[in-house]
Each structure stands twice: as C-alpha cells, then as structure tokens.
Amino acid sequence: MSENIYPIGIQNFEKLRKGGYFYVDKTALAYKMVKTGSYYFLSRPRRFGKSLLISTLEAYFLGKKELFEGLAIEKLEKDWVKRPVLHLDLNIGKYDTPDSLDKILNAALSDWEQIYGSEPWEKSLSLRFAGIVKRAYERTGQMVAILVDEYDKPMLQAIGNEALQKEFRETLKPFYGVLKTMDGCIQFAILTGVTKFGKVSVFSDLNNLNDISMWDKYIDICGISNRELHEYLEDELHAFAEAQGMTYDKFCDKLKEYYDGYHFTPNSIGIYNPFSLLNAFDRKQFGSYWFETGTPTYLVNLLKKHHYNLERMAYEETDAQVLNSIDSESTNPIPVIYQSGYLTIKNYDEEFGIYKLGFPNREVEEGFVRFLLPFYAKTNKVEAPFEIQNFVREIRSGNYDAFFHRLQSFFADTPYELVRDQELHYQNVLFIVFKLLGFYVNVEYHTSQGRIDLVLKTDKYIYVMEFKLEGTAEEALRQINEKHYASPFEADGRQLFKIGVNFSGQTRNIEKWICQD
C-alpha cells in the first residue's frame, strides 16, 4: 500500500509536485479551460482548492513543463509557451479600513513595475495595472495571463459596512475593468472567489467573464469526485476502514455522509470537500476539519440582521438569478450562505427554474448549527459542546425536568434587541438545540404559526412535546391529547412522556412545562 503525503495546507503547485505530495490530476480540465476560452470566473467555498488551481495555471503559463510530468496535460500540450503572469492574491489582506485594499493592490503593482516598468502619468491603481499589462505584452512578445485569487475578500469582509463596501467597490470596479479594456494584450484571465457580487457591484462592467461556477463541464475542477476518490485512494479507503473497525461498504457510506454532497449544478455528481477529506485520510479519523479553520461571523450577522428563520435552511428555495449573484446591498442572506458552502443544491424544478437548497453533508450541518448556538443562546463557544452533551444525557435518562431547566438557561437574560421578534427568536433557539440533539437521538421537528411540536426518541423513552407562545402549558398538553399526537407511539414498548410547554413573551423564556406519562 502506498504511503501518501497529503498536501494539508499546501496551495503551491510547484511545492506540491517537487515535494512528492498526493495530487488529484485536474490538468486536463485546466487545459480545456485555457484552450476553449480567455476570461473566466469560478466561485467555490473556502478550502476547496481554488488557490491550488490558480497556482497550477501559473506554473503552466510560466512554461514549467517539468512540473507536469506524468499528468494528463503533458500529453495534451505540445508548445509550452512561457508567458508573463500577473498573479494577484487578495487572501493575504485584512480589509477593515478604506486604504487597506489600496495598500495590497499597491504592493502587487509595485512588484510588477519592478519587472515591467512604469510611466509617470499612471497615477491611479487601474491606470498602473493597465500600463503593466501593456508593457508586459510589448516587452515579452507574449500575451499576458492574469490570475486573481479570492477577488471578493475585501467585499466579504466589509459586509454590513455599506460605506466601506462602497469604497472597495469604487476601487475594484475600474481595477478589474482592465481585464476588458486591455483585451488585446491578455491571453487568459481568471478570477476566483467564494461569492459573486453582481448588479451595481464589481462585476457590472465585466460582461466578458465566462462564469463556470454552475457549469457541468467544470463541476469537478476543484474538490474530489467519487470516481477520483476510488481511483486515487482505493487502498487508503480499505486501510481507513480497517482503522475505524468498519466494513469497507459501511465506511464508504459514512465518508460520503460526512464529506460528500456538494452539488454546484442541478442533478450533478456530488463533490467531496478536499480539505476535510484529505485531513481525515491523513489522521484516519472523522472530524470537522473544515470548521476548525474558522467560520466567518459575517454569515451569522447576515442571518440575524435579516431576521432569518433558521428552520428554512433545511428546505430553502430560490431561483438562479438570486443564487448566482450577490448584490452587496441585498437583504437576502441565502446567496452568501450558499456560495460560502454551507448550503448546496439538493433539487431543481425545471418547469419553474427553482432550486431547493440544503446542507451538503453532516460535517457542514452539525458544524454550522454548533457554530450558531453561542450567537443565539446564552452560552459561549467553550461551554456549548458540553451543554449539548448534557442535554443528550438528560433525554437519554428520562430526566426531562433537568432538560427544561437547562433549556430555560439558554433563554435567560437574552438582550432585548435579539428578541424583538419573540416567536422567531424562540423558534430559532429551539431549532438549534433540537437540531444538535438530532445527531445523537431521533428527532422529528414540526412547526406552524405560533407553535412547535416535537418528538424525541431514545432507546428507552419517547417524548411528545407541544410548545405554545403566549398560551399555557395546560393548553399545549391538551392539544397533544385532543389531536392524538402520541397515538402512533402508544403501542411502543418505550416509556412515553407527553409534555406541554409554554413560552412567555413577557419573561422571554419558557414559563412552564407539564408532563403526563
């Protein structure tokens, strides 16, 4: 069995190839992209291989044929022309002030001007960029390749700050506009990022970019497909399964449940998150590796700012126009959540052009809901995992009083501004708690206007709960009995608890619960 060296955190193609690291060959797709078009845009979630793709293209355009030995492109490319490459990586900056973006762009332009020169009348960032492109072409006799990694980082970091977003937009719009005005000097250009900002934003003049984010032909340009998984890691799959004490088939199912499931077009193959997958193989352990690298808080700020009902995330529906283009002033958080990789395409209604979204896999679903908990409930990031553990223990032991006392503490002293929409707030907290419980016990969760009913099942107990807002616990219990919510479980051998719960708008907390067994 081969001992792969997994390129954890390595995004430089030359380092990867010279160091003998594991590599899934994407060069045939890269070659197809280069030979069939000139201007591209690609959106993929973070840690999905965008930077490595950019680095691969850089090595190709610099004519470093030796790095591609044994790869598909070695047989496809005959000429290996060396071109001037302008590689701009915006991932390195912290964009919190108006001049922070200018400093990053100025640093890149200054480096290029050291090579290709400058002119005194080129004062603005965009004029300097255009001059560099022109001179690079004239001095080398070869058209230029422009590679922009994380083009949207400044705009994303400024979400929620309209003044700063406007500053960045007014800087980036003419800067990226050089890709259009200098077409005669440019052989190839690609912008990659997490999101696509549209309408009046940085893309409004770039109608020459070919967006391949939702194109089947390039669906696996980043990430790892199931075919690639078995082609490149078959021996390692068996070794990983053995290390987990699982049969090969059950292990593959679990791997798919945790890390597969990204769909960037309707009815397409699923794509594995490469960062999580390779970390799991490296350690032979399942873990939330993607989430350990950090989840941006702007996502939560968007959800809370727009009073989003979290339950909708499990069955959100939208159309292509909304899904594929983010307006920096938009009041809809879903395109950002989708393009950031926390939701993916689950289904598509071709007749009406409607996409159904959902969590791609268990790592994302569990990780994201865990991440949300401290932002909605009275707990912190350190305590949250232990609180969920305690909830599960109490449910499994039949200690429902302790469970509800703990749940009360999640609502206690919640700032007033967080609960202006009281019903939505308590539903969001309950959704998070019961969603997290669902990874350990069987949960059926149903909502309708003004109430929530819930079924929890463990090995020993079944709980049928009804939640009321501004009613009474007695009313909630009566509804369970009158509507026979517990009937399907009465013949079950497990102990049955029927629990009515009331949530008070005045105290902004659970007021009372009554149990009948």
Task: Explain the overall architecture.
- With 517 residues, this protein is of the alpha/beta class.
- The strands form 4 sheets. It has a 5-stranded parallel β-sheet, sandwiched between helices. The chain has a 5-stranded mixed β-sheet with strand order 11-12-13-14-15, with helices on both faces. It has a 3-stranded antiparallel β-sheet with strand order 8-10-9.
- Helix 20 links the parallel strand 13 and strand 14.
- Helix 9 packs across helix 10, helix 16 packs across helix 19 and helix 17 packs antiparallel against helix 18.
- The longest helix has 20 residues.
- The radius of gyration is 26 Å and the shape is elongated.
- The protein starts with 12 loop residues before the first helix and ends with a strand.
What is the strand and helix layout of this fold?
Elements: H1 13-18, H2 27-36, E1 39-43, H3 50-61, H4 72-76, E2 85-89, H5 98-116, H6 125-140, E3 144-149, H7 153-157, H8 162-181, E4 186-193, E5 210-211, E6 224-225, H9 226-243, H10 248-259, E7 271-272, H11 274-283, H12 289-292, H13 298-305, E8 317-319, H14 320-323, H15 334-339, E9 344-349, E10 354-358, H16 362-376, H17 384-397, H18 400-411, H19 422-437, E11 442-448, E12 451-457, E13 461-469, H20 473-482, E14 495-504, E15 509-516
Parallel strand pairs: 1-4, 1-5, 2-3, 3-4, 13-14
Antiparallel strand pairs: 6-7, 8-10, 9-10, 11-12, 12-13, 14-15
Helix pairs in contact: 5-6, 6-8, 9-10, 16-19, 17-18
